[in-house]
Amino acid sequence: MDYKIALIPGDGIGPEIVREAKKVLDKVCEKYGHSFSYSEVLLGGASIDVHGVPLTDEAIATAKSSDAVLMGSIGGDAKTSPWYKLEPSKRPEAGLLAIRKALNLFANLRPAYLYNELRKACPLRDEIIGDGFDMIIVRELTGGLYFGERQTIEENGVKKAIDTLSYNENEIRRIAIKAFEIARKRRNKVTSVDKANVLDSSRLWRKVVEEVAKDYPDVTLEHMLVDNCAMQLVRDPKQFDVILTENMFGDILSDEASMVTGSIGMLSSASLNETKFGLYEPSHGSAPDIAGQDKANPIATILSAAMMLRFSLDMDKEADAVEAAVQKVLTEGYRTGDIMSEGCKLVGTKEMGDLIAAAL
Ligand SMILES: NC(=O)c1ccc[n+]([C@@H]2O[C@H](COP(=O)([O-])OP(=O)(O)OC[C@H]3O[C@@H](n4cnc5c(N)ncnc54)[C@H](O)[C@@H]3O)[C@@H](O)[C@H]2O)c1
Ligand SMILES: CC(C)[C@H](C(=O)O)[C@@H](O)C(=O)O
Ligand SMILES: [Mg+2]
Predict the structure, then answer these.
(1) Is ipTM over 0.85?
(2) Site feature Important for catalysis: at which residues (predicted)?
(3) Which residue out of 90, 101, 120, 195 is catalytically annotated?
(4) Secondary element (H or E) of residue 304
(5) Most buried by CB count within 10 Å: which residue of 37, 79, 101, 132?
(6) Which domains does the chain have, with CATH numbers?
């Protein structure tokens, strides 16, 4: 089959990890007789450098006319990069938020799975991990604090900054439905995470989630306050199957969950709307501290590409093959620095990509 894929390398390690994911996709095409045509799209700092803004209408149009978008990461070092001298709405992160909104990508799925081979890279004790760790965070991605009105004002000579956290029932309902549908294909448990002991938006969240739960009597629903959840993720991570939560809590909890998998370099993600279209990117950022050094772990991006094959292109067996190739390379003992442990073989970004492509 012939498919159109928009490719967003982005900033920092973005181009390095996207290159490896594309290498793996080239192998998928060769092996299964598909052909993908790629259009490169600028986003974030890469777009500021060329167009002066982090996202252009043309970039949105290219993404919209594609079957799926595969992305690396955007952003730079806030202390040293000239991008951060611009006003906030013109910085790299604003481009990422804007493209998510423009494509209506309200559902961000972040699967956190600990490969048995990476147990030594996981900082938690073996008895805490037990039989394994396999959960998914379903994060609301186009509402909440990151999209509310904000302003910085001065009152009586004192600066004041305001961010607004708001959700309406429809926004909560559609993401809750996603979480329950996903739970049905997994272990039938949803943990909805909020701060309902303080926030009105969380009290509405809880009410709507309970309404949705009535349509899923086969799925167990529990509510958990976000501060407790942050603690439970390291105390007993295997209690979770599906975590359903709002935008900012999901952002923070997914980075935390990534460490249970060994590294943020292992955490893939899919950002979806109501159709089959999606944007696929690792959950981590542009890692300016290791950019250009062939040190970045490309696995999160390669696993995101596998999610793209599965969700947007209906290629289950191809996605399975990519995941199996990742598994094989880990079983053979190859590791990038972030997941390295004693007795394993240290490889760089490119070699890890080569090994996974070859394993296919
Ligand atoms: N979706 C995205 O594009 C995205 C996500 C998060 C952060 N950011 C942006 O990235 C920039 C850097 O942010 P940050 O430093 O807080 O977070 P980060 O995720 O880029 O890096 C945090 C730490 O994890 C390491 N790391 C991240 N990805 C790795 C990988 N694949 N392999 C090995 N190590 C990896 C980094 O070296 C760093 O030490 C900021 O501008 C931020 O806004 C973008
Ligand atoms: C860069 C930033 C806007 C982004 C977010 O908060 O969604 C990132 O942290 C992520 O997790 O994808
Ligand atoms: Mg984040």
Answers:
(1) yes
(2) 146, 195
(3) 195
(4) helix 299-311
(5) 101
(6) 1-108+284-360 (3.40.718.10), 123-260 (3.40.718.10)
Q: Residue 146 CA: which ligand 2 atom is closest? A: 6
Q: How far apart are CA 279 and CA 271, in angstroms?
A: 5
- The residue whose C-alpha atom lies closest to atom 9 belonging to ligand 2 is 251
Nearest to 199 by CA among 245, 134, 264: 245
Mean pLDDT of the chain: 98
Kindly report, residue by residue over 171-199, the tens digit of the pLDDT: 999 999 999 999 999 999 999 999 999 99
The reply, when asked if residue 290 is annotated as ligand binding, is yes
Q: What is the pTM of this model?
A: 0.98
44 Cβ closer than 6 Å to some ligand 1 atom = no
Q: Are 291 and 12 in contact (CB under 8 A)?
A: yes
Rg (CA), the chain: 20
Q: Residues with Cβ < 8 Å from 182, sequence gap 6 or more?
A: 109, 136, 138, 242
DSSP string spanning 122-147?
SSS-HHHHTT--EEEEEEE-SSGGGT
- Verify whether ligand 1 is closer than 6 Å to residue 284 (CB atom): yes
- What's the pLDDT at 136? 98
Question: What's the token pair of residue 252?
Answer: 């923070």
User: What is the C-alpha separation between 249 and 251, in angstroms, rounded?
Assistant: 5
Tell me, using a 6 A CB cutoff, whether residue 312 lines ligand 2: no
- CA torsion 351-354-355-358 (nearest 10°) is -160
Bridge partner list, 8: 71
Q: Determine whether 316 is an active site residue.
A: no
Catalytic residue among 11, 67, 194, 251: 251
How far, in Å, CA of 127 to CA of 241, rounded? 18
Active site residue 195: yes
The structure tokens 């939560």 sit at 245
Q: Which listed residue (134, 255, 328, 350) is catalytic?
A: 255
pLDDT digits 0-9 by tens, 330-349: 999 999 999 999 999 999 99
